[in-house]
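User: Modeling request: complex.
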Amino acid sequence: MLHEKTIMIDWTNFTPWPSFAGGLLIGSATAIFLLFNGKVAGISGIVGGLFKLTYGDVAWRVAFVLGLLIAPLVYGLVVPLPLVQIDADTVSLIVAGLLVGIGTRYGSGCTSGHGVCGLSRFSPRSLVATVSFIMAGFITVYIVRHLIG
Amino acid sequence: MQLLAALFSGLIFGIGLIISGMTDPSKVIGFLDFTGKWDPSLVFVMGGAILVGIFAFRFTATHTRTILGEPIKLSTSQHIDRRLVFGGLTFGVGWGLAGYCPGPALVSLLTDSSKPLIFTIAMLVGMAIFEIQIRSSQSKKSKFHNESYL
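Assistant: Request completed. Predicted assembly structure:
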């Protein structure tokens, strides 16, 4: 069923260059964090680790998250923020949030930790995790958009 | 200095997520809509990030300390188990439902929509549930498995 037709590319929304440029910045941030802080810039691990409440292990996590939080404010000073579209309703957002929170902690990483850092280290573990979450994402969107929707 | 580096890294990471299009859930779902009209942009995000990442992680092959002289702490786990796969699958379902993964949700928190806030609160609750569950299973006795938690 999944292979009955060839892949159709959505050319109108395809943004290879901004996406690649953004990717280079994400990689650079990962490099800064690795070279100065000596850790993997895995966002779910950085945030989830806050719940361990380990003394002396909180400040750097908060600093990194603060950087993420102020990013749109700094970006907005230079150019207006791009418009976004969030189709999910409140119930979907809550269910999705819970699944992302639990799943990233059980799987020891998310798109940044496994998808970017792990793959940059050629970690087989991260490759398995990345294939798992992308496949689950493909199947979920297929069900929500094409079977139910 | 370390805190400043962490703050700066988070800022650059966040700006990268905005420029790349990752903070737009409809774009992320466009990437995950593989059987519909597929937007492969996210492949370029990962490609760009990994390209720089490979060079950065090469540094760790020859160095055990950071530029600031602190030890580099990276996961050495090679363990591929059910927990890794099921965790990944669970995350992927949530990612496909809302179009948010943890980074973009946090970056979108201080913008004018309340939706990223709802998602983020639920995500934090999910992470707290994990922590409570891990602690209770560790205190019960870890005779069934003693894995390292990242």
